[in-house]
Write a structure and sequence with these properties.
The chain is an alpha+beta fold and 380 residues long. 50% of the residues lie in helices and 21% in strands. The protein has a domain of 157 residues: Pdz3 Domain. Strands 5-4-6-7 form a 4-stranded antiparallel sheet. It has a 3-stranded mixed sheet with strand order 3-10-11.
Length: 380
């Protein structure tokens, strides 16, 4: 017999993951689409998903310079595979001379805006989601609310009310940033600067590794409660503080991959559990989160929604950041060629650029295949 409950518990997180990924991809391609429209570039197709077409809608805006044998309006399509999407612009892949609506005939600046538009929209989506999340649940700030006895922080002289502003010279505006630096300390001494009643004080403390393998110094952060978590006596989150925290969170998630890469290259300690995962690995995480939250029926729906908002924001920030990396076949590589064109005052040979993107695309597919295979083996 078919286990209906088990099938539902498997299907729902998969559906949630598809919706999250669909939203992030849609917003990314919408950024390209809006910037293309602003520059007067004709968009041939705006697609959500990959593979054969399922549904097609014809747009109303017509091309001012139609090409014989091709559609003179934008096609909006939904495709079979609910993974990925694209915004196909005239003149993006082919050189079309003397066409005022072709991508290749626009200024370097306009083309840069079109390419950057996708990542910019991903970052905007992440900020909005982080804002909603922190407004509802609240946030932690790096202000000391408690000091544990006989721990490194107390021995160094830190006090309740101190605001941690810098660690080893790096600015700290987010509690997550403080935790990241603590986890990657490797037990080495840290130079900590705090603001105590307007006075800058420099302290040195050495984190200790507890039995669970986590490095700690023995302090507690300050919590500012959101609309869902506020109780009488709590410090309430403000709109300004929530917005500032949201911006700090997107900044943290943009910088973290580069910091992780730098630590990996220089053989420095990485946070526990830090790794690169494929789309299968992310799907598995969604399933794990869903099953964990549903195990507590009293708060299951609310907790699941909040967890998925957080995951969607992190994925959106990650996709925006990854697409700006100078990796062939991604937006970042196209930006590199546009910058070269702007410096040289003439474009790189389309054949040469196409070759670079093709080779990079093959390598990227191979890397994705390896990650997917690894994550599938782990699941099995």
């Amino acid at each position: 017999m078919i286990n209906i409950a088990g099938a539902v518990n498997t299907a729902i997180p998969i559906l949630i993951f598809i919706l999250i990924l669909g939203l992030v991809v849609f917003v990314h391609e919408l950024g390209h689409f809006l910037m293309a429209r602003r520059a007067g570039i004709f968009v041939e197709e705006f697609a959500l998903g990959m593979g054969p077409k399922l549904v097609t809608f014809r747009g109303k805006k017509k091309s001012s310079s139609p090409i014989e044998g091709q559609e003179d309006v934008t096609l909006y399509t939904l495709r079979v595979l609910p993974l990925g999407g694209f915004c196909k612009m005239r003149g993006m892949e082919d050189n079309i001379p003397d066409d005022p609506e072709a991508f290749n005939n626009k200024s370097v600046f306009d083309r840069i805006l079109v390419i950057v538009g996708g990542a910019a929209m991903n970052f905007l989506l992440a900020v909005i989601l982080f804002f909603i999340l922190t407004f509802l649940t609240g946030y932690l700030v790096p202000v000391v609310s408690g000091v544990q006895e006989d721990r490194p922080a107390q021995e160094a002289g830190i006090q309740v009310g101190d605001r941690i502003t810098h660690i080893n010279g790096s600015r700290v505006s987010l509690w997550d940033n403080f935790l990241f630096m603590l986890e990657t300390s490797g037990g080495r001494p840290m130079d900590v600067r705090v603001n105590r009643n307007g006075e800058r004080i420099n302290l040195t403390m050495t984190p200790v590794q507890d039995a669970d393998g986590v490095f700690r110094i023995g302090i507690h952060s300050t919590f500012r409660a959101g609309s869902l978590t506020y109780e009488p006596g709590d410090e309430r989150a403000t709109i300004v503080g929530t917005l500032g925290t949201s911006l700090d969170m997107i900044s943290f998630h943009i910088r973290t991959p580069f910091r992780m890469l730098a630590r990996f290259v220089t053989r420095q300690p990485l946070p526990e559990g830090a790794e690169v995962v494929s789309i299968v690995g992310i799907g598995a995480q969604v399933t794990e989160i869903y099953q964990a939250t549903m195990a507590r029926p009293q708060y299951a729906i609310r907790t699941t929604v909040l967890m998925m908002l957080n995951l969607a924001a992190i994925i959106s920030a990650a996709i925006g950041t990854m697409n700006l990396l100078p990796i062939p076949a991604l937006d970042g590589a196209r930006l590199v060629f546009l910058v070269i064109e702007g410096i040289r005052r003439k474009p790189v040979s389309p054949e040469r650029e196409g070759t670079v993107h093709m080779v990079g695309f093959i390598i990227l597919l191979a890397l994705i295949a390896v990650l997917v295979l690894r994550d599938i083996v782990r699941l099995i």
